[in-house]
Amino acid sequence: MTPTIIGYLTMITVTLVGLALDNMTINSLALLGIALIGLWNSRKNAQIQKTASDTKKTADDTKTIAVATHTLSNSAMGAQLQMQLQFSQQIAVLARRIAKSGDPGDVAAATAADVVVKQQQEILQNHLVQQAKVDATVAPAVCTEKK
Asked: What is the C-alpha radius of gyration for the chain, rounded to an integer number of angstroms?
């Protein structure tokens, strides 16, 4: 038993003994019952409020972690896309140098490499645009909730 429960039981016992000694009436029993129910309800309400507070704090912490994780993963994705673009550009430069030989296959490979560079630029740009939209909506909402 916790100290608070022992305290409640001690108070109840003392009250019952006192009432029994004073020729307890039905009304005094009813008042004691109401008082006990009030004590019990206030204790339970305090527990419920603490649980609700803990749950809200956990939810806020989860939002903060989600935003941080989202930012981290999107930064990593942006870095990966940037590296792919740079790699594609290097391949295109090499392909153009080789295409100077005039061989139709080399020229076609250089043209294809240039197309890949343009595609990689579009993918990176689309990622940056989408990330900016998300950052503008998600991150400020979480930051203002904490204030």
From this structure: 36
